[in-house]
Amino acid sequence: VQLQASGGGLVQAGDSLRLSCAASGRTVSSYAMGWFRQAPGKEREFVAAITGRGGSIFYADSVKGRFFISRDNAKNTVDLQMNSLKPEDTAVYYCAADRLPIPVTNQYEYGYWGQGTQVTVSS
């Protein structure tokens, strides 16, 4: 499975961005998909995850109510809609995938990773 993340950019606080992750190589409809982020000088952290059929979704407390994860299994994609962005959301955002039955928050459970897309939020 190859993952390609896109949609990052430079925005102002309060703006919105939509990240997209396109999978190729095989259908990922049965894979849990996750978004993680890594800010400069910090560890990579969990943001959001969704199960294969979209039946279960989990968010980090820091983004709950502002970020929304969704997937389109027909297109083999997963998106992250980010609203009310804050400067502390600035990071490289990565998508990840693996055959997991639940929306796992532990990055080490995911075997497939995209290359990351930079999100910068100015104050």
Rg over alpha carbons: 13 Å
Biggest sheet architecture: 7 strands, mixed
- The total beta strand count reads 11
By secondary-structure content and strand pairing, the structural class works out as mainly beta
**Basic shape:** globular
Strand/helix succession = EEEEEEEEEEE
SS field, number of helical segments: 0
How much strand? over 45%
Give unreliable regions as ranges: none
Terminal CA distance reads: 37 Å
Amount of helix: under 10%
Mean pLDDT: 95
Gist of the model:
The protein is mainly beta and 123 residues long. It has strands spanning 2-6, 9-12, 17-24, 32-38, 45-50, 57-59, 67-72, 77-82, 91-98, 112-113, 117-122. Strands 2, 4, 5, 6, 9, 10 and 11 form a seven-stranded mixed β-sheet that branches. A four-stranded antiparallel β-sheet has the order 1-3-8-7, with no helix packed on it.
Task: Write a structural description.
With 123 residues, the chain is mainly β. The protein is built from no helices and eleven strands. The chain has strands at 2-6, 9-12, 17-24, 32-38, 45-50, 57-59, 67-72, 77-82, 91-98, 112-113, 117-122. The strands form two sheets. Strands 2, 4, 5, 6, 9, 10 and 11 form a seven-stranded mixed β-sheet that branches. It has a four-stranded antiparallel β-sheet with strand order 1-3-8-7, with no helix packed on it. The radius of gyration is 13 Å and the shape is globular. The mean pLDDT is 95.
